[in-house]
Amino acid sequence: MRKIEEMNRYFVILVLCGFFSVLSGQEQVLTEPADYFGFEPGTDRKLFDYEELTGYMQKLADESPRIRMEEIGKSPMAVSYTHLTLPTKRIV
């Protein structure tokens, strides 16, 4: 009886380790462009403006700690130039 309890304990430990390794290996799901803009970019007669594009970029930066968005300057019309950093897994 004691051997069965010990085997059950090891089984539970193995299952939990497998569960947590699966969770840690999952890729983060980011918002797709079609979901944000309401159409697939590149679709005929469908365009988005700069504010929508920077809004999408900011949403990606908010959803992932690996993506950074920063302002790198202003245009002559006081519109901010933005820069999006997307590191690869090897770099991070």
Instruction: Kindly report the oligomeric state of this protein.
Output: single chain
Got a strand count?
Answer: 2
Domain count: the total is 1
The percent range for strand residues is 5-15%
Radius of gyration: 23 Å
Percent helix range: 40-55%
| Residue windows where pLDDT falls under 50 for at least 5 positions | 14-26
Strand order of the largest sheet: 1-2
| Helix and strand run | HHHEE
Cα(first) to Cα(last) distance is 49 Å
Shape: flat
- The helix tally amounts to 3
Mean pLDDT: 76
Structural class by helix and strand composition: alpha+beta
Largest sheet, if any? Answer: 2 strands, antiparallel
At a glance:
This protein is α+β, with helices and mostly antiparallel strands and 92 residues long. Helices cover 47% and strands 14% of the residues.
Report on the architecture of this protein.
This protein has one domain (2-85). The model is unreliable at 14-26 (pLDDT under 50). The chain is flat. It has 92 residues and is of the alpha+beta class. The chain has three helices and two strands, in the order αααββ.
Can you give keywords for this protein?
two-stranded antiparallel ribbon, alpha+beta, flat, 3 helices, 92 residues
Topology:
Layout: H1 2-25, H2 33-37, H3 50-63, E1 68-74, E2 80-85
Antiparallel strand pairs: 1-2
